[in-house]
Structures are given as structure tokens and as C-alpha cells.
Amino acid sequence: HMPDPVDVMVPRKVAVCEPGYFNDYGGKLRFHGKISTVLCFENNPHVRAALEEKGEGRVLVVDAGASKRCALLGDFLAETGTKNGWSGIIINGCCRDSEEIGKLDIGVKTIGTHPLKSSKRDKGMRDVPVSFAGVTFKPGSYVYADMDGVLVSDEKLEL
């Protein structure tokens, strides 16, 4: 999905996240789907609400402001997402219960782990564009993730 030869002056169909930005914690290392987003900071009510919905193969992308002071996702919410048909979760923040999350059939990429739960004070916002790791994730666009990185496309790509 890149021009051949690669030419930095030619518009790309995909945006590539900054290499090495995320760590893999989920039991599924390759995942993709339509993007749904949450914008929040150290609070996860919208993360919970999203994962309680039918995922229908979507990927939840959460911009937590790159906070490393608490975790927005634990094994219970990751299992909820698995049961509800989410393909994956990408968080610009931390998760906890990483050993248990690694046993679940869901992709999880975060910037790290933290043992402390998040608070529930401020809900944040749902399904708004969020930008981190050098790309913008827009609700309704598509994300493709594996152990090598994360790609974002406005249109569905043939795999």
C-alpha cells in the first residue's frame, strides 16, 4: 500500500505510527478493524462504556495523553472487549494485569504497564479524532497492527 519505489513526495494511502512507540500485551499480536476512539486523561469511564458495546471487529483507540501514572485497561475490561467482539485496543497510556491480558484473544498495544487503576472522575470524549505516535486516528478509518507496528488508513485495505 506504498508507492513503489517509496517516494516521500507521493501521498501515501497509509500513515505509519512512530516505530517502537507501543508494546504488545494482548494474546492476539495481529489485529485490524474500523476505528472507534476515546480521548481521556487518567480516567476510563468511556473506555469501559465502549468495550461494553458490541465491537463488531472494531479497534478501540484511546488517547490518554501518554500518561504513565495509572492504567486505563485491566484484565476485566480487556476480557469484556474480547467477549463483545472487539478486535483490539490501542492506548496512548498504560494497562495493568498484563499477564492475564496476554491470555486473551484480543490485541492490546500500550506504551507501558502500571499497577494503579485510573480514576472515574472525568469521562473524556468519545469518537473524536485523536493524534499520537505521529498519526491521527479518525473514527471510521481503519487501523492495522502487528508486532512490526501500526498503520492507519482512511479506507479499508485488502490484506
Could you walk me through the main structural features you see in this protein, from its secondary elements to its overall organization?
By secondary structure, the chain is mainly β. It has a single domain, classed as Glucose Oxidase, domain 1 (3-Layer(bba) Sandwich). 13% of the residues lie in helices and 35% in strands. It contains 3 helices and 12 strands; from the N terminus they run E-E-E-H-E-E-H-E-H-E-E-E-E-E-E. Strands 1, 2, 3, 4, 5, 6, 7, 8, 11 and 12 form a 10-stranded mixed sheet that branches. The mean pLDDT is 93. This is 4-hydroxy-4-methyl-2-oxoglutarate aldolase. Its cofactor is a divalent metal cation; Mg(2+). Belongs to the class II aldolase/RraA-like family. InterPro entries: RraA, RraA/RraA-like, RraA/RraA-like_sf. Pfam families: RraA-like.
Tags for this model:
single chain; 159 residues; mainly beta; Glucose Oxidase, domain 1; two-stranded antiparallel ribbon; EC 4.1.1.112; lyase
Determine the CATH topology.
Glucose Oxidase, domain 1
Radius of gyration in whole Å, from Cα?
Answer: 15 Å
CATH architecture: 3-Layer(bba) Sandwich
Q: Which range best describes the helical content: under 10%, 10-25%, 25-40%, 40-55%, 55-70% or over 70%? A: 10-25%
Count of extended strands = 12
Morphology? globular
Mean pLDDT: 93
Summed up, the helix count is 3
| SSE succession | EEEHEEHEHEEEEEE
CATH class: Alpha Beta
Distance between the termini: 10 Å
Protein name: 4-hydroxy-4-methyl-2-oxoglutarate aldolase
Subunit structure: Homotrimer.
Binding site for substrate: 74-77, 96
EC number: 4.1.1.112, 4.1.3.17
